[in-house]
Amino acid sequence: MAKLYFRYGAMNSGKSTAMLQAAYNYEERGHQVLLAKPQIDVKGDAAIVSRLGVSRPVDFVIAPDDDVYLKFAQETALAGGSVSCLLVDEAQFLSDAQVDDLFRIAVLDGIPVLAYGIRTDFQTVAFPGSRRLLEVAHSLEELKTICRCGRKAVFNARKIDGKFVFDGDQVSIEVGEVTYESLCGVDYLQESGGLLGSGRRMLGEPAYASAPDSDFT
Ligand SMILES: [Zn+2]
What we know:
Layout: E1 4-9, H1 15-28, E2 33-38, E3 47-49, E4 55-57, E5 60-62, H2 68-78, E6 85-88, H3 96-109, E7 113-118, H4 128-136, E8 139-142, E9 155-160, E10 163-165, E11 178-183, H5 185-192
Parallel strand pairs: 1-7, 1-8, 2-5, 2-6, 6-7
Antiparallel strand pairs: 3-4, 9-10, 9-11
Helix pairs in contact: 3-4
Bound molecules: zinc ion.
Zinc ion binds at residues 147-149, 151, 183-184, 186-187.
């Protein structure tokens, strides 16, 4: 049986590079693959862009309401009917239903699906697509990167004009230069004043009744 794979990591953990390498490995052996990514990601203009300098256009873009199961069947027909693998970049931006479509492609069509994405947002809360992938993927694999301190980075902290911010929308619509830094748990808590999740799971009540600021100043 083919499987749905979720390869996740913090930002800058080499997900796009790993995905392009996987595509290359298939093609080197004479197999055809299809590359896709959600439309919400405008970086690179519908291409997979690796930080190492390699890039490649996607075969199809997934719009927010797309039926990915149907779209994959259409794209497979357009590609000549013989596709060995579907690779999806920025899978954190898929909807629950679209992740379920990826599962169907693997299980019902027998085509392996490799989904790559960021596990959590800048407030340490799972992106919708990543949460669903963690629930249903047959195989979970962490792609690792390191924090400035040398520990493994697990979170993505947001900076606006060089300063850490812990409030805002999941996909930034802020004014100013938005960047992200991959941090370990220790450094994330130091920068956030001890907060994880910024209280989003408990509306009207902060996640921590009293932030343990004395430990972090
Ligand atoms: Zn650190």
